[in-house]
Amino acid sequence: MAAAGALERSFVELTGAERERPRHFREFTVCGIGTANALAGAVKYSESAGGFYYMESGKLFSVTRNRFIHWKTSGDTLELVEESLDVNLLNNTVRLKFQNCSLLPGGVHISETQNHVIILVLTNQTVHRLLLPHPSRMYRSELVIESQMQSIFTDIGKVDFRDPCNSQLIPAVPGLSPNSTTSAAWLSNDGDALFALPSASGGIFVLKLPPYDIPGMVSVVELKQSSVMQRLLIGWMPTAIRGDQGLSDRPFALAVHCVEHDAFIFALCQDHKLRMWSYKDQMCLMAADMLEYVPTFKDLRLAAGTGHKLRLAYSPSMGLYIGVYMHAPKQGQFCIFQLVSTENNRYSLDHISSLFTSQETLIDFAITSTDIWAMWHDAENQTVVKYINYEHNAAGQWNSVFMHSLPEEEIILRDDQDPREMYLQNLFTPGRFINAALCKALQIFCRGTERNLDLSWSELKKEVTLAVESELQGSVTEYEFSQEEFRNLQQEFWCKFYACCLQYQEALSHPLALHLNPHTNMVCLLKKGYLSFLVPSSLVDHLYLLPDENLLAEDEAAISDDVDVARDVMCLIKCLRLIGESVTMDMSAVMEMSCYNLQSPEKAAEQILEDLITIDVENVMEDICSKLQEIKNPIQAIGLLVREMDYETEVEMEKGFNPAQPLNIRLNLSQLYGSNTAACIVCRGVCKIASTRFLICRDLLILQHLLMRLGDAVILGAGQLIQDQQDLLHRTTPLLLSYYLIKWGSQCLATDVPVDALESNLQHLSVLELTDSGAVMANKFVSSPQTIVELFFQEVARKHIISHLFSQPKAPLSQTGLNWPEMITATTNYLLQLLWPSNPGCLFLECLMGNCQYVQLQDYIQLLRPWCQVNVGSCRFMLGRCYLVTGEGQKALDCFRHAASEVGKEEFLDRLIHSEDGEIVSTPKMQYYDKVLRLLDVVGLPELVIQLASSVLTEAGGDWKSQATLRTCIFKHHLDLGHNSQAYEALTQIPDSSRQLDCLRQLVVVLCERSQLQDLVEFPYVNLHNEVVAIIESRARAVDLMTHNYYELLYAFHVFRHNYRKAGTVMFEYGMRLGREVRTLRGLEKQGNCYLAAVNCLRLIRPEYAWIVHPASGAVYDRPGASPKRNHDGECTAAPTNRQIEILELGDLEKECSLARIRLTLAQHDPAAVAVAGRNAAIRGHQQQASGPARQRGVLDQCARQAKHRSLLLRLLTRGGFGSLADTMVATNFPVSTGSSSAEEMVSLLVQAGLFDTAISLCQTFKLPLTPVFEGLAFKCIKLQLGGEAAQAEAWSWLAANQLSSVITTKESSATDEAWRLLSTYLERYQVQNNLYHHCVINKLLSHGVPLPNWLINSYKKVDAAELLRLYLNYDLLEEAVDLVSEYVDAVLGKGHQYFGIEFPLSATAPMVWLPYSSIDQLLQALGENSANSHNLALSQKILDKLEDYQQKVDKATRDLLYRRNL
Questions:
Q1: What confidence category does residue 607 fall into, taking pLDDT thresholds of 50, 70 and 90?
Q2: What are phi and psi of 48, to 5 degrees?
Q3: What is the DSSP string of 744-775?
Q4: Which of 309, 307, 343 is closest to 328 using CA atoms?
Q5: Segment (H or E) for 1283
Q6: Type and span of the H or E element at 104
Q7: Distance between CA atoms of residues 907 and 877, nearest Å
Q8: Which is more confident, 1141 or 751?
Q9: Residue 3 has what DSSP assignment?
Q10: Residue 512, C-beta contacts closer than 8 angstroms, at least 6 positions apart
Q11: Predicted TM-score (pTM) of this structure
Q12: Which of 525, 953, 1051, 1254 shows its CA 20 to 30 Å from the CA of 269?
């Protein structure tokens, strides 16, 4: 329309955020000052209210932008509230109670300085000054980026209300008007606080408080009309001295205008004259009779002007404007003047305009340099607000403000409606009742019951339900009711509570004042219970809502430049208004129910039309038809109206702020209209527009059906076709449904969502890669309750709208001012565009999804889906997301499938499939399915993943990458569900070899973890056999041996396929690793079993194939992530060399098996020796607890790890004070090993543990000499012989482990005896050439200085007496050697020869005999070295005598032999 760019003609009242908790006022008591009169304080004045705007509230980059203060006075109580449209203010409410005083109506005046906000308060007895910090001084930076900020009232508790510098008592002085209700206060340029009160004589008393930071005295000045002399009254003068004036001169309205160092005080007096006083000169500068501007003033001249009002408005460019309201019975007149200065300090009034009104009771009015805003109460006690431009309105036509109407007085219920449900719906529908009204009604309804009234919206709803139901139950006296009786009783109590709420709603809606901000042109209504805002209405709404008398005077040029079109539109609007007035509540409900139940609105309109025709008793339809006759082109008029109401756009609004703008500007703009109050106002405006437009569209549908029914060519006009009507009808229906949907969203409350649910939802959306979108960024701070449209505006839409508004400013932003009508209109229109269902964007739906509003989202899409063909795929997808949340997976899957057809056609779905790296690896549809599959996976619905992926396989076609992805997905989720066979089948069909290998590895690991090894072994693995073996081998070599059984699995795998040699190789490697890595008894047991299994496998093979390849060291030691340069000890490893392949045959495995069993035997006998059997890493944990031999072995092992050479170890032990350990190592030949223990090392360990039988068996198996066994046993015999009782007791344990022919445990036989007997038995049992074992035993005994037992001497005599003699000589046992030589010579000569093993002694007939002459010579030499020793000489002589005797007998035997030969 032509008026789209013109000024809007009317305004609409919108209530603020009344659904929040009742304001929590912090209360403070201002105690009485001096001798305040309590009786005077009991005077009651009417309630009043007012507001204060900051001077820079209209500047875009000001801290005080969109910020203001409003207050309300009632009796002795002052309530102050600071509001902001940009941020949520904390601690912004305060209630001051003035003890023994009553606040004067309008007795609150607020001023601001650079550092402070100063509140001046007047009561009937006192004046007060409150100093609060200015917002610009409360914050470190002028850049406001927080969503919450502290109010200036935060620290009001620190104010000293009794400070005499800021509080003063007004003395009771004659002449001061006792019942005056007017006052004025202002702040001078010097910082003085001045308070003006009228006097009964027609003058003005001015009380001055010096600046708060400068000491001074309180002074009073009286301004009198009869004097032009400036007088300072130190005290108050009696009226008789001053002279009395007429009562008609008394001021009843005061206003102040400050100019430089002076202040002009305007007083509207009872004599209808306006006087202007100069405070500086203390003289009356002007007096003007207002009756001169009233056409008929004779009646007013005789009456006191008590109903007149006075307002000022200052414009820097135009000067001071004075507005005077002249009250007369049944009428009123506004006179607007401009103050004109003349020479000689003379002033006069320039009359600008006079405006008349028929309203009687004026509540308040405000003026600007162009407009008057006025608020009345009409005869029906309804609030009426109007405004007019007094400069350019010659006709005097006031513009309407459509007030927020009270809820219906009565709720009509149908028989199928539940009373409780319907009353709760009406009580708690947003925009109907405020929280305070419901709380007060609840308090009255539950009188006598203590209830907490600090309740949220949802809590209040529960309390109301409980209260009404309790009252109902308390009134029941009978136990049985019919359903109808109970329903009637229920309706009675709910109706009673509803009436109570309605009464309080009406009381709290009582208007108190207008608040007009000339910097932003924002107008607010200050009511008793809440604050409301006035916003412009669009031209269509304006015409539809305008009263009939105003509609007749409407300028048609504002509608269209074409006069005929404008007249047609006006006639069309009149027809619609007639239809709207005729539609009953039941008819209206029919249309709304058809929209809600997804039925055809056209059929509903047709039904309503039938009903209107049926019940038309006032001939309204005839009036409509007659008006239709006046329309020349109805199709064009209807089309124009439809286009004006359609918000459909083809271009989506840009998202985000312009990156070219500086950061501080973007941050500052990001907070514009960011408070809960602003969100509520904007969304309430959208709701109001949607509700009004819904009614217009409803009436338009009915009218179009009427046109089609008439079908008269005269009405249709020349050339009009039925098809044009049908097209318009089909355009109107979506319009009606769109507004219904927006209206529904504006009244649908959002659900409070726990933080954990928000985080879970964010995790799901991150899978879709939508978390970067502003539409899904959930805000954890949500005021409760909110409608879903408010949620959308605060979370998403506001930033888009603000960025769009300031993306291409017409002027520099620093010079841009905020005009409230323009800003709220633009914001509302852009929000409607974002909410419009047929626009391309899906931000609203995304916001609901991102904030877990899934129930509301599902309802919204269900209402939208039957008729809207835009964003069909996106809606389907989000509906599927809703079904996922509600647990309806199959429905969700169907929605996801249907949405796939729209991929590539809709912005949301395109953004959904957009990859972060920008690389497109498959078709858009496949990318979409990939996102859906990932979403189903995260939600935890594997069955649906399999189902969807299986169905998508056919669409993938020849795209092998997509095929691989889908089949991998099917495999994974089959595996998760435990469908092993299906998982294996899916695995075999994966075309990508790398993916197939990954899945195969996952299959092996998962089945192993589940212990489902039979399935794993029995799968055929066609063309995957080697890969399976490699995977299991890799896992086996990479994980802990004792917690996973991959080696055993691989063994079973090969055995199942009769590959016994591979099975044997696996178990042998398993055993090797167990021996080297697991130093526990359990590990040794498993090692033995592994070797035994390997042996059994080779025995099942033909002998020529019974061999395996020795596993390489890399297969045993290599670990993922291990350093290739260093071993486990951190030492550098040698460079790798080409290893020769080592073949192990069955015999080799049997030896290893035997060695493993012996290790186990050793560990079972001595648990402390477990780790010593191989690599000694695990023994560290036992060193501190071990004692005796075990601890010695632990220390030896620790040293062995620090020194690779035996000699170095011995030196370390000796230097470290472990001499006994060094001896033990030397005696037992303790091995120093860095690898798994060999057979030789095991022999030493067994000997050390006393397992001599086992050691001998091991030596025989590996064909090792028994020398270490005999030496070790000899050493143990020595220790027993030299040890005490403890050694004896310990010896029985290892003695019992060896097989003796008979163990004697009587007292006569000790452990030492048994040890010697065991040694004797071994010497007899295991005889070798050269009698090596005797020699080593005797050598061991003699080396330790232990006398040889007789049985050992006798035994060795028989086998090698000469060697025994040499041993005696080696250890300087000369006496024993002499005795041995003597006995040996006797034996040779035939005396006791059987004890030396001599079969034939010396004789001529026997074989030749011999003596160890060399040893005997050495003995004689040793005896002769000390010639002074007589004992040695005797021994030497004894040998010589024996030898002499021997020589004689040899000589004789020789001669006999020679003689016999000569015969």
A1: very high
A2: -140, 165
A3: HHHHSBPPP--HHHHHHHHHHHHHTT-TTSGG
A4: 307
A5: none
A6: strand 103-112
A7: 13
A8: 751
A9: G
A10: 47, 48, 49, 72, 363, 364, 526, 527, 528
A11: 0.76
A12: 525
